Amino acid sequence: MNDRQQRILQYVTDNQRVAVAELAGITGVSVVTVRHDLNYLEQGAYLKREHGFAVAADNDSVDTRMRSNFQTKKSLAEYAASLIDEGETVFIENGSTNAILARLLAQARSITVITASVHIANLLRESRCEVILLGGVLQKRSESMVGPLARLALEQVHFSKAFIGIDGYHADTGFTGRDMMRAEIVATALRKCACNYVLTDSTKFGEIHPHSLGELFLIHEVITDAHLPVLFRQQLEHDGVRYTLIDEK
Known about the structure:
Blueprint: H1 3-15, E1 17-19, H2 20-27, H3 31-43, E2 48-50, E3 53-55, H4 62-66, H5 70-82, E4 89-92, H6 96-108, E5 112-115, H7 118-123, E6 130-133, E7 137-139, E8 144-146, H8 148-155, E9 161-164, E10 168-170, E11 174-177, H9 180-190, E12 195-199, E13 211-212, E14 221-225, H10 230-238, E15 243-246
Parallel strand pairs: 4-5, 4-9, 5-6, 9-12, 12-14, 14-15
Antiparallel strand pairs: 1-3, 2-3, 7-8, 10-11, 11-13
């Protein structure tokens, strides 16, 4: 996805329904070029097309959430990808930034990826990566494998790094998630005691959700963007949690 396509994607996400002619005006290219860009974005399931318009998808899929703060999430994913060595085995949990990480890994890496995300496994199907998809109950909305079978499968595999997403962070609760069954998978992964990375944009900080994702001492590093407020930087430091702030490219 080039810079112009990213700009189009963000504009459509922000405005929900945009005329092709308007997109041509804001990008400074022809309507024909915009149509080519929209074809590419629609094929990648980033948006939908109607006659003369580009429309943001109206569901809660990983692809839909990926469009929010896309460039920030892409910068975070690029940094995370740089931490993974050729031939390494890693666990990648669900979430929009992790999905972008998977897209990057699909381009050029020969690694083993363990995941509970059907979406992420699908992104890697044409890549050089070896993919281990955990069994279990399919949670259709999030496209995640959850439940006792998924936890048991996760306990039987080994990896050197884990990349997880979160829904919230607060000093009183630590990292939290909206969904109990997904939170159980994350907690199981963290207890494997690999190098555990929280991969999230800073908008999640300050939110509290019902389900704890595990003890803070299990987190090796938080990877987030440079918009993280000073208050949360201080809280992470107080809790002994290392963090890296990434500037948007």
